[in-house]
Amino acid sequence: MAETVTETVTQTVTLGDLDLAALLCSRVCHDLISPTGAVVNGIEVLDDKDSDEETREFALDLIRKSARTASARLQFCRLAFGAAGSAGAQIDLGDAEKVARGQFEDEKTRVVWNVPRAFLDKNRVKLLLNMMVLAGQAIPRGGVMTVDPVGEGDAMAFRIGATGTIARVPQAIPALLDAAPENGVVDAHAIQPYYTGLLARTCGLAVSIASEDGGIVVKAV
After folding, report:
1. Lowest CB count within 10 Å: 4, 105, 184, 187, which one?
2. What is the CATH number of the domain that holds 145?
3. What is the largest CA-CA distance in the chain?
4. Does residue 194 form part of some domain?
5. Would you state the pLDDT for residue 87?
6. Is the separation of the CB atoms in 123 and 85 below 8 Å?
7. Taking the model in full, what pTM does it have?
8. Strand ranges for the chain from DSSP E
9. Cα angle 126-127-129, degrees, rounded to a multiple of 5
10. How far is CA 41 from CA 28, 49, 157, 181, in A?
11. In 10 A of CB 50, how many CB atoms?
């Protein structure tokens, strides 16, 4: 009896400009809902005339922290998803480091930045920041993200190592990086890794994420 071989055909997905823009906007809004909502809640507490002094101080502290978080996320999103200059513009990697630290560093996560300061094509910088988003998702309980250059000059690419307590590759991400989601759909939850793969291909690179040396490595070469 002849053996039957079943092949799984992977179909790539190409989003139209309007769909890509809409989904990226949804992603940015998702990132900002939590801190801006916390600011609103804090203001409502301050507006309550029955609030005691301890409660009002708690509300002020909540507003301060949430406003800083919202500002950091906006600055990050501006570079990672926005135009950040005219066509063909370059971005200072020092600015990328600043927004990356503001986005990712906290009491649980540390960023080790080994990329030299230089001006680089904006799409490569956007790629780097989006790779860091993937690395952050791979260490949901925090850890260390180490950002290294691969090559130098205008052709510089990147390698990000992520180590943490439960470092893992989120199941859907590798397929989305190749624009081939398992269910054939790219929604607001899937748009970021899809966009990362798109940026890599625009730069003439391929981006991957895999387990390596007890951690996770996100690499563009």
Report:
1. 4
2. 3.30.565.10
3. 83
4. yes
5. 54
6. no
7. 0.89
8. 90-92, 109-113, 119-121, 143-150, 157-164, 207-212, 215-220
9. 65
10. 20, 14, 42, 37
11. 5
Full residue range of the structural domain in which residue 130 is found? 17-29+88-220
Contact 112, 145 (CB under 8 A): yes
The domain total for the chain is: 1
pLDDT digits (tens, 9 = 90+) for 120-152: 999 999 999 999 999 999 999 999 999 999 999
What are the tens digits of pLDDT across the range 24-72? 999 999 999 999 999 999 999 889 888 888 888 999 999 999 999 999 9
Q: 191: closest CA among 204, 169, 203, 176?
A: 176
* Cβ within 8 Å of residue 78, ≥6 positions away: 84, 99
**Tokens 């300061």 belong to which residue?**
117
Contact 168, 212 (CB under 8 A): no
CA distance 23 to 46: 35
The residue type at 111: V
Sign of CA dihedral 44, 47, 51, 56: positive
Instruction: Give the residue from 194, 192, 181 showing the smallest Cα distance to 10.
Output: 181
